[in-house]
Amino acid sequence: MTDSLGWRRKFAVLIPSTNTSVQPEFDGMRPPGVTNHTSRIKIPNDPLKNDDDFRKLVDNIAGAQLDAVDSAMSCEPDHIVLGISVETFWGGRAASERLTAELQTHTGLGVTGGAGACDAAFKALGVKRIAVLTPYFPVGDQNVGLFFRESGYDVKRIKGLKCASPVLIAHESAQTLRAAAEALDGDDVDAVVQVGTNLAFAAVAAQLEAERGKPFIAINTAIYWMALRDNGIADKVSGWGRLLQDH
After folding, report:
1. pLDDT attached to residue 149
2. Number of domains in the chain
3. HEC profile of the chain
4. Structural domain boundaries, residue 45
5. Same structural domain for residues 181 and 134?
6. pLDDT tens track for 94-127
7. Residue of 146, 188, 207, 195 whose CA lies nearest to 169
8. How far apart are CA 79 and CA 58, in angstroms?
9. Residues 74 and 94 in one domain
10. Which of 72, 99, 215, 245 is 20 to 30 A from residue 191's alpha carbon, by CA?
11. pLDDT of 207-245, one tens digit each?
């Protein structure tokens, strides 16, 4: 017997408790027979004013993560999906791979995370030169750049929006995100990629991609695409850009 709604796969989706973008975006991308089961990593909505505040946010996520993992495991999921991005970039490629391996060992399940999903998306789309949009402070941008450079990509530009709290990341408007992504684009990049899973960029990215004829990659789209493909689910989902539509 299999789950009546998640008869293909049940995803345990881990997100910070302050995040309001991952859950609706992932549910919009969900094909029939796949269900998303959100477990929230309990963190405070502390103000973010500088790099030290941002480091504390990363520490808060890391400290509360396993409790959320263990809570999610009680629904007997088939796969772990990290609806978190900063932690998967922090410390560069080796640290990211170590985080994934530790979670796989802890749960006995496959794990899809943001940094690895971006890497896989770049490979699928033939991307080598990138510009990056984040909601982070400079220390976060540095770690994102470190991961991408260690993974072999030419990072031309990074723009961090320095959002004033974890919750306020999701308050950045579509107009603000579009303007920032357009400013990052140029003939010297193959793609613009957005990280920071609480930025609601997936629909904006799909629009920009159609208009500009090059990849605009939202991290939530990359994560969900990779989670599906890692589980042998090849459904093409329209409305979210070329990754889910064509790959």
Report:
1. 98
2. 2
3. CCCCCCCCEEEEEEEECCCCCHHHHHHHHCCCCEEEEEEEECCCCCCCCCHHHHHHHHHHHHHHHHHHHHHHHCCCCCEEEECCCHHHHCCCHHHHHHHHHHHHHHHCCEEECHHHHHHHHHHHHCCCEEEEEECCCHHHHHHHHHHHHHCCCEEEEEEECCCCCCHHHHHCCHHHHHHHHHHHCCCCCCEEEECCCCCCCHHHHHHHHHHHCCCEEEHHHHHHHHHHHHCCCCCCCCCCCHHHHHC
4. 9-116+221-246
5. yes
6. 999 999 999 999 999 999 999 999 999 999 999 9
7. 195
8. 23
9. yes
10. 99
11. 999 999 999 999 999 999 999 999 999 999 999 999 999
Q: Are 44 and 68 in the same domain?
A: yes
Q: What is the pLDDT of residues 59-97, one digit of tens each?
A: 999 999 999 999 999 999 999 999 999 999 999 999 999
Answer yes or no: do 159 and 40 share one domain: no
Q: What is the pLDDT of residue 52?
A: 98
CATH number at residue 131: 3.40.50.1860
Whichever domain contains 228, its CATH number is 3.40.50.12500
- pLDDT score of 18: 98
- Percent of the chain predicted with pLDDT > 70: 100
Is 1 inside a domain boundary?
Answer: no
CA 191 to chain centre: 16
What is the average pLDDT across 42-62?
98
Please check whether residues 41 and 140 belong to one and the same domain: no
Task: Provide the whole-model pTM.
Answer: 0.98
On whether residue 91 sits in a domain, the answer given is yes
Q: 153 and 238: one domain? A: no
In the predicted structure, residue 1 carries a pLDDT above the cut 80: no
